[in-house]
## 1
Amino acid sequence: MQKKRNTPGEKLSSHTLQKAITDLLAKNPGKKFSPGLIKKILKVDNNSDSIKYALEKAIEKLKSPTKKSVEKNISQSTTERKSEYYEGIVDMTRSGAAYIICDSFGEDIYVQPKYIQTALDRDKVQVRLFKGGRRNRAEGEIVKILERNTTRFICTLLVRAHKAIARPEQIVLPFDIEIDAESLKSAGHKDKVVIEIYKWPAKGFQSALARITQNLGKEGGINLAMNSILINNGFNIDFPEEVKEEASRLSEKLTKEEMSTRRDFRNVLTFTIDPEDAKDFDDALSYRILDDGNVEIGVHIADVSYYVTPGTALDKEAYFRSTSVYLADRSCPMLPETISNELCSLRPNEDKRTYSAVFTFDKKNKIIDRWFGRTLIHSDKRFSYEQAQQILDSKEGELAKEILAMNEVAISLRKERYKKGSINFESDEVRFKFDEAGHPVSVFIKERHEANLLIEDFMLLANREVATFIHNKAKGQEIPFVYRVHDLPSLEKLEQLSLFAKELGFDFNASTPDKIKDSFNRLAKASATDDALKLLEPLAIRTMAKAEYTTVNIGHYGLAFDFYTHFTSPIRRYSDVLSHRILEKNLTGIYREDKEVLEAQCKHISSMERHAMDAERQSVKYFQVMFLEDKVGQTFEGIVAGIIERGLFIELTDSKCEGMLPFDSLYESFDVEPSRLKATGKRTGRIFKMGDRLKVKVMDTDLEARQINFELEQEQ
């Protein structure tokens, strides 16, 4: 049977494209291929940058494979085996085993607990692959730890007669931590301390050596829990003194010389729209009607790169953090508050330095001109999203005419984006209302209104146009840049999603890229009114590749943009600071950063972004458990959100709190289908399916472990 060829115009994922080009080169040794020729032969719709990158990787693989095959005589009974070495990131499981995520290998490599060594979650390691792993899965052992994810932990100090031991909060380490006596100082028995490991054990039964960097005293409760989450995810909970000192010396005073180098927008109507409780206003919009009747809309972004300059302690700390972290009850900023909330915050009635993307629209809301550069603005008004939404709903109020006109442009941009295949998917954002003691008294889902979309559309526009400008300026000679990319979804995961959707009565068509996008958008619309289909949203999001920062532009699948970057939030994202710096150097000439250095920075920023997302999820889970602590014995309606061998994951309909309904509590064993869509009782034949609605009672809560257990409410 002849193998099916690629559909003309089909856009392949980065991995699939590399494989196709590798096969093409292998079948045609000695023949030279240009990106254009490859595009024609393979009949793909990938852009030239992504084809060029895939071609380079394919040549690399054929000349010197990324996987290091090393032949060794390993005695296992009487068998000699060939071992292969890979580099990857540790993804620990609750059982103590791990999966090693390797870019250079086609699947994750499973590592049993006895082969973990002293590796911890998200460490970068070298793993040796065993041939013929069990259960048709790749297995191996960690042979070297290349890079630690974090060296700092919040611990309880245990002071003994002859030494002090630190016991980490929330996590279990496979070794003890001894504290350097010189750093012990006034820290006492059972104090909470922040420690930094400076000597790691060579083997699991040895101890690590650490020093105390901060004594939290007998602090406990919520503050300790939130600080633990930040520290364990690699974030500093305070700024070093050197950074604070540098920030305190910065001034917002404007000189005449500097004013002459910036385009002056201070007399142009400008305003901000932000959350009610926001303090760091990092973007503003300006609006004016030009003499020819066209409209000029400016997207003005806080000029962080003016204050945060390369090589300073401030810059190094911002790069180390790479992002602000927004926990459920607090934030951990990327920059000191003197910068984020004062110097750079675009507060009303103040002259501010900005970096701007200014667009001219004709009467049909089409862009006919664009300009980028440093500016000065003076915000006339600060709106909350709620205030702006009230203006959009009532069509009256301060600046109503201008806001309504800008919204029409935003709607036009949005329609054009969806027409080109942008996917409209938003996961629920859980929020809490707290009492004076910081305890959650209610849980709700953050609502997104048209005012949110108005701002979002102009930010997307600026991000897209900046990336497009850099690409076009290169004229075929690459200018290394910080692109925000999003690869195509995993076909294997799409098949699972289609199966799950079918079980819930939804037809998810994954036959072509266009059908996939259409299915995603239909699902987003349908799930707005169907809680069962709402369960598909997180699963649908997981089928997609994770968006990341890289110098290799493969486009943004989810937004349907060929070129995209992050330019609009430099107060809270270091990627945007880099984008500003590179754009500035390329406005009047051509400047090329060292691509390898820039790519390494992109990888670090992407990694810290993932850590921040993990920290945010952990904080939400903590407060969800706390919210249900005083509700043990109460009954709630929930929906089956997941099925594993041990039981059912139940998500409460009102609060979105998720916990486990163990099969043990149902007094029988269950067979779980491989798809994990259904579980059948072995004794009664009772069936539970994903999306089933159940009434459950809160059985117990464990705040330290962040776990909730339910039992099924007995039917009357």
Note: The radius of gyration is 27 Å.
## 2
Amino acid sequence: MISTVKELLFSVTTHTLNGRVRGGLIMLLFPLCLEAQTWNEDFQNQPFNLRYGSQSPTRIADNRVRDFAVGHVGHAWNEGSYHAIGTSPDSRELAAYIGGLRHIGRVDLQGHLRYRHVSDDRQAWQTALWNFTDNPLAICDSIPGEATTETFDMNATAAYSFNERLRGALQIGISTGSRADQNDPRPRTRTSLIPINAGIDYDLSDAWTLGATVGVQPFSSNVDYTNVQQSASNFYFIMKGMGDYQKRTTADYTSYHRDYKGMTYRGALSAQWKPSDGRWSDFLEVGFATANEDARDGSTAYEYKGGDYDQTVLSLHDRLQWQASERSLHNITIQASLTNGKGTWYDQKRETDTEHGNIQYYRVLGSSTIQKTSLLNAALAYQWDLLREGQRDLYAGATIGYKNIIRKHFLGGAIPKQNIAVASIDLKAGKHFAIRQTTLLAQLEGGYSLPLTDDYADGSPYSGSDNISADYTRRIFEYETGANARVAALVDASRPVGRNLTVGLHANFATRLYLGNEEYWQGFDGHSYTTTEIGAYLKF
């Protein structure tokens, strides 16, 4: 019966997607909100699968757990004043998930369906959904509102072993999301992503494996602003970066429309050394990606270029594993990425076509680079697992991180520059307890971030009442550079109720506390941001 249900799950996943994308398989798009939840199969596979962090979908063929299915529902609360400027200080989330793994002969399958509903209270300065976070060319408003976001994503991955040496895999994903705010000016955002990823691995010998991955990801998003109360005058901010902007008023534009179109191309090469009779092994992957997001405003009546954003990413991932004994497993991971982004702005003039019914349009006078961004992320992580009967019993880990952000804004002869460097450390430990037929997992996490460099500059050429530095740019900078501490705890209890059926409950708590000195923006002192989640799951 259980086997039949698993096969039905993957049949439904693939059949449903074929109605949307012909021949489709789905890619996993979103990480789970908190790590080490036993209802997610990566808790069993991540420590043992050397290639678990790989970009290649062929990694699922190396999973230790290859037949797994789960259904999950969860509810989360997010509260607090110490948050990013576009985040709500009070939000509620409901999520439902079903997915799993299946191994059939030479084929390994992975798939999921997920739905999320988020209600945000007092949210402002954020209308984008899944845009690149470092894209400065945003459209937003400063009016806090009651926003509702709904997202749906599907996933299926298929890996096939052609022979003992050659393996291939394919992922195709689809994710759709919608966000709406019921306060004037009222933004409505709709976004879709369709990532496609293909990989291949070849065993040169018993120890060495080489791999390659290629992928694309089309991106589409549109934002519609509407106004119900015509007598009120509000503003849309057409951002250029670092506080520099153009302003639109609801008096001039009772509605406003923006389209984002983008494409990502990526590739990666990997090498794995894993002797069949050795305790040491290593996996190395080097990746490259190039992407663009172009913004176009207006409608059939006129078009206004909201700016083009281009991005390149170089990434490195290396994982060294040492099987010290049958009970002890050690993993050391190095990850680094360098992201360079460039925003192009178009100087435009509003004109009237008197020969064709006084149609308003924008004439492009020229284009230039408005902002360049460089983002370096690096992390060194160590994880130790103590095993009992081949399963994780006690585990602990530490991660040391470093982040450097450099932004240069171009304002004629002046080039304001922001330079941010932050170091962080995170610690984690967990233990399983057997209480009769119930398995209890308890996990604690803690972390601290410290700014090393915080050179501030404002790219806004405005002054007086038009200067939003105090409310926007400085707040973003203080959030990025402020020292903070983090604490998290997780409790998970599961119990078998049949031969192949397990039910479970979990509760998660995480809080981030501001410890900075409010050098650039006042409002975070003594404040925190807390996430609480409860959930139930069924594994079969």
Note: The two ends are 10 Å apart (CA to CA).
